[in-house]
Amino acid sequence: MTIEVLVLGAGQEVGKSCVIVKIxxxxxxxxxGMHMRHTDHSRYPDFxxxxxxxxxxxxxxxxxxxxxxxxxxxxxxxxxxxxxxxxPVYMTYPTKALSPLMLEDYRKVMVDxxxxxxxxxxxxxxxxxxxxxxVDLKQTVQVDEDLxxxxxxxxxxxxxxxxxxxxxxxxxxxxxxxxMTPDRHLGAAQIDRLRLDLLITESTYATTxxxxxxxxxxxxxxxxxxxxxxGGKVLIPTFALGRAQELRILLDDYWERMNxxxxxxxxxxxxxxxxxxxxxxxxxxxxxxxxxxxxxxxxDFKNVHKxxxxxxDAPGPCVLFATPGMLIGGFSLEVFKHWAPSEKxxxxxxxxxxxxxxxxxxTSGKPTKVDTDPDTQIDVRCQVHxxxxxxxxxxxxxxxxxxxxxxxxxxxxxx
Length: 415
Description:
It is found in: Nucleus. The chain is of the alpha/beta class. The protein contains 12 helices and 19 strands.
């Protein structure tokens, strides 16, 4: 048995997840993401390390994508349509449905709003998706005579999966992001008891012990309520898919309980499409949402409405979900420039922010000024609240350490 691992992205950083595993002669690419902070070709994994000749079809047996976030799928259309890979690509049905929405939204932001050179076109995205083979949970897929794969529920976002791979007598699991506790719209990660030779796992928060999720939610709701009660505006910069749905359910329920009349808005047309897909993919959600689906669809938000650009400087309190997350550009950054100078307002950052982004600078201290681009500096007088949703307990980190120590001296973790 021989196993070789080549990390092309997300090693010691968050962004452009891409890992090549050679196992018993088969070479598999796990995830094909981009780094959201970079604006040149360093946003992509260094594909030349896979093949000097550029013949990626001979160099790879397949690609497996864990979920639709851009740091896991953002480079896929570029790799297939520009670099020329035409082999099989595997992902779950929801990931196949939602990935093109994410890729097209990113393309529009980068090209139409930021004026960057186009890396891939809408036609490239469509052709890329034709190469994708959708899989269901726990469906064993025979890629070829020696290679089989199987997807397991990962939580995190709708359609996210952990992938089991078997090549001959070698077995491994690769995870992207996963959640070990259920939330309002997704269940907890689930996987069979397996005898593995290799485990590669996302570990962004692996050494961080977090407070109770409910305590974090209470603090978030308290901060939002205090802001709007004082006549302020709340900006929640978030990507349109995933955490946006979770937070909207949280706020929609809270608004109903507290009988609040302050408007909640979302800014992205992508959000409308995303909610449509979430309504269609109820089978991938939490048991609670599935149980109540016949009487109430959790993604029919009573208090959430579409935001028009003309409302940007309108008087009065409101809550606005604006894309993209991390304040990396687009409409969320435009809103931030308008609202940050007022001490009545609040910016609530709902998750990890990569180094170099405006979001990261806000969560790393209490800056009074922030450079949003080389020519623009914003006075930051607003309040800043950070609520971190994805969390993995330290016990998982310790378990992984034990696993690594075990397989370094033995062919099986259970020996």
